[in-house]
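Per reviewer request, we include the raw input and output of the structure prediction for the construct analysed in the revised manuscript.
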Amino acid sequence: MKKIIKDRHDYIKEICKWKKVLHVWCIWNSYKSNSKYEPWLHKEICMSSKECVWVDLYKERINEAEKLSWSKIFYWNAQDFDLWDKFDVIVAWEIIEHLDNFVSFFDTLKKHSNDDTIIVLTTPNVFNFSSLIRILLTWKPIFDKDHVVYFDEFTLWQMLKRHWFIIDKFIYNTEISPQRIRNIIIRTIGRIFPILNLNLMVICKIK
């Protein structure tokens, strides 16, 4: 099943509402941001969930991020940690494209899941419209120095299937941005061709 939404933050907050949540890689680059174009998801989940546990690898940012979110953040590698607990929802926000050990990462997610745990994975969509235009004009893809792999719906589906996850739905989205004309163009195209949206999200469970 495919779905197109306007706002990933609102969608995830609704999933996490009154739930026990594990948020993997929660600090990210927007932890100081008050902009409506780049809100800090972790703080929003804190305000929505019943209980939330957070894991992050940015050791130098943890103390400040804890104060800003009024929460406890554990310093661990997302690919291998054990909190000795299970959660209703696990959110892995924009992290899978940074990893090099998928087996360990997926085993870690399973370790913290029950049969009914909802797992939310988000990642940039490799076939997004902006990237394709850049390739056509410059013969160079949009590249992030911290990314080691890029996903589309089909490769992500194949990887999750191989690691025994049950996929509920794929969700496409293009975030709001200050570039209104660019945003309108991409969203309009994205409604017609979902695969050209900027962001890809998958909702799944363990098998």
